[in-house]
Amino acid sequence: MTPAEPALHLAADNVAALDGASVSPIKASIGSRISGYRFDGETVSDDFRSAMRDLLHTRGLVVFEPGTVTAENFTKFAAFLGEFFHYAGPHTPRAPENPDATVISAGKDSHLRNHVWHADGGFREDAPAFTALFGKATPKDGGDTMYSNTAHVYESLDPLFARYLDSLQVIQSPDATGHITDRYLDPEEAAQARLRMPPFELPLVRTHPVSGRKWIAVNESYVCYIKGVSRVHSQNILGILFDAIKGPESSCRFEWTEGTMAVWDNRVVQHRAVKDYAGDAERLLYRCTMTA
Ligand SMILES: [Fe+2]
Q1: Ligand 1 mean position to 127 CA, how many Å?
Q2: Centre of ligand 1 from the C-alpha of residue 173, in Å
Q3: Which end of the chain is more exposed for a tag (fewer CB within 10 A), N or C?
Q4: How many Cβ atoms are within 10 Å of 42's Cβ, its own excluded?
Q5: Which one, of 7, 5, 64, lies nearest residue 30 by Cα?
Q6: Separation of 160 CA from ligand 1 center, angstroms?
Q7: 135 alpha carbon – ligand 1 mean position (Å)
Q8: How far is the CA of 70 from the centre of ligand 1 (A)?
């Protein structure tokens, strides 16, 4: 397929030599690795902050080696991106050593659907702009996170198809694939949750406020249907997009070790966990989410 628009060039060079950091791409389509940087637990320099923002807006995902931050201070590092936004409910507990972080653990939350492609908080119109994850305890083998850059997906589509997608509106809901139904077994609690988090309409394609790139704003977890077309039409179009989002061209796989951190632009980048680790292995990640 012919790209609808040329992909933006990588804004990576300006990070090198900043505060001892070096940067390398994960893939041409998504992600950068920062190494050699150590957060002092207090401040992030203005130059580093600016370069990091550029990277997130152009590369979508930035990952950091162990030793960059700690379980206690990774939220202080990530705070330069915006205000903390705790959208999760009581089922997602706070980290014991860091009240700004929530604990993500499939072992502790049987309803967690983090193995399905999603954007964090994608069941809300005001979903967080950025997410940071810190590896607290990670399986020896497996338990990676997969990421996909939906701006690259959009740019890889046939231009005529992309233009058609530009015209579509979708309906999203936290219960699109049964999140409320499964989690709230009490009918009254389920009804209240649906009132708190009603379905909403948004364009299928959105434009990033900083980079100007268009991206695919539907994910497998939270989209109900494309408005104004038949169910079959809707499902087929969404299927093409989900297939492209999962494709190797626009995605990458991040292997966790304890102490690593991943930060991404949660608007453009979708992600999922991979449940391929031993049943008795612990996979404990700490998360914070930020507004733009
Ligand atoms: Fe997530």
Answers
A1: 12
A2: 16
A3: N
A4: 8
A5: 7
A6: 32
A7: 13
A8: 20
What are the pLDDT tens digits along the chain (292 aa)? 444 433 333 344 455 557 778 999 999 999 999 999 999 999 998 888 988 999 999 999 999 999 999 999 999 999 999 899 887 666 778 999 999 999 999 887 878 889 999 999 999 999 999 999 999 999 999 999 999 999 999 999 999 999 999 999 999 999 999 888 888 889 999 999 999 999 999 999 999 999 999 999 999 999 999 999 999 999 999 999 999 999 999 999 999 999 999 999 999 999 999 999 998 999 999 999 999 8
What Cα–Cα distance (Å) separates residue 121 from each residue in 30, 174, 186, 261, 290?
A: 21, 9, 22, 19, 11
82: left (phi over 0), alpha (psi -120 to 50) or beta: left
Amino acid at 118: H
**How far away, in angstroms, is 17 Cα from ligand 1 center?**
32
